Amino acid sequence: MIIHDVRVHPESDRLAREDQLAWKIAQVAADAVAVEPAVADMIVNRIIDNASVAIASVNRHPVTTARDQALAHARPGGAAVFGCGPEVRVHAEWAAWANGTAVRELDYHDTFLAAEYSHPGDNIPPILAAAQQTGRSGAELIRGIATGYEIQVDLVRAICLHRHKIDHVAHLGPSAAAGIGTLLALPPETIFQAVQQALHVTTATRQSRKGEISSWKAFAPSHAGKLAIEAVDRAMRGEGAPSPIYEGEDSVIAWMLDGRDAQYKVPLPAPGEPKRAILDTYTKEHSAEYQSQALIDLCFRLGRQVQDWDAVQDVLIETSHHTHYVIGTGSNDPQKFDPTASRETLDHSIMYIVAVALQDGAWHHVRSYAPERAQRPDTVALWRKIRTVEDPRWTERYHSTDPAIKAFGGRVIITLRDGRVIADELAVANAHTLGATPWQRADYIRKFEILTDGIVEKSESGRFLETVQRLPSLTADELLQLNVAIPAASLGRGLPGLFG
């Protein structure tokens, strides 16, 4: 890896193109390095993972809305839409919108956490849609997805957005544009302009993940993917972008992030170096915010040691800065204790998640968030006894660059009224690559089968799983088979809007 120093430059410097981060990203995207077999295998796993959660959410309101909007933009020879058969084709940017929303709705796909946090699987819908519309092969899709993951992960390692209340999809726009650039084998000049355009139009505030969290949380990454496709299209037509988008005196860094004195060190692969970042990412066994994954596994164990929930006096979670301030009591967000809150809000309340995990010893993507579950009196009583504190030890591990040390867990201390204390800690989730039961292909397939059971016909499930595992050899026509179809009569329809 090459570590690039990134800082703001006054306009008078006339920063050379080759010294700009967007150009360096473009060079990585244009580097036709071979994809390692382990990376290709993991890409297959993550396409299965995305399909699992997309189909499980296929008739949820935001997904239905996004699909209806996409279907109003039909295009012969376009891209496919999750839930519909390959004969249903729409413009690629609208397929990315519909499919990206379906993937993101349940907050149940992969994650990477460092200086910023991200769901790098959000790169797959726009890159896949672009591949389907342009007639690319499975091997070309793999190369594009490898780039999307690489660029997003590398940006997330170096540049914090949430400290400045900027939503994390600001790293997704550039990564998706770069991935599409690799997919289409575009020249660096074109990718450079697309990356800059994509960043310029995908910066937004984090209010989408604060307070009354709405369906925009599901739409935000698909919107970034849609805008990335449009940015690539404009760049291919010879249009330029605001430049330098990262280093300029009125740039994103200068006015939205660390300001004119910013100093970032962004790692990117050297020329000829394989793009391996996807191997550093991790998926979710449980449908909840990633920082809760290890704590859910831990609470399954601890809950078995509590016989009477009324006997609990206090539950303290010692954890990282991020977990405490974003999904813990450090957020000072009263909605995180509201039994009538939306699923999106409950998913971002570690206090609620720990209460249910302790009591149920299990987690389900629907039942664990049901209103009757959230409003159960004994759960509400326990929930309001739970608090978080930042422990510097866990914050240090959260930000470590050493994969053997990096962790997103914490310590749970349950104090009973009789003075007895039940306590333990867990650093990484069981499904993590360093966890008790690291996930393999069979685990991704099991997740797919569980989440699509009763929604997808067995024959269609088998067809998809057989097809996706042949990804490196798929032809352009076969690439359309990566969208799982369900019976048309089972697809929900939403309210009419401007597009019909």
From TrEMBL:
Lineage: superkingdom: Bacteria
Residues covered by the MmgE/PrpD C-terminal domain = 286-471
Protein's UniProt keywords contain Nucleus: no
Per its record, what are the GO molecular function terms? lyase activity
Residue ranges occupied by any MmgE/PrpD N-terminal domain in the UniProt entry: 20-264
Name the UniProt key words of this record, in alphabetical order.
Answer: Lyase
Q: What family does the entry list?
A: Belongs to the PrpD family.
How it assembles, according to the record, is:
Monomer.
Q: What is this protein called?
A: MmgE/PrpD family protein
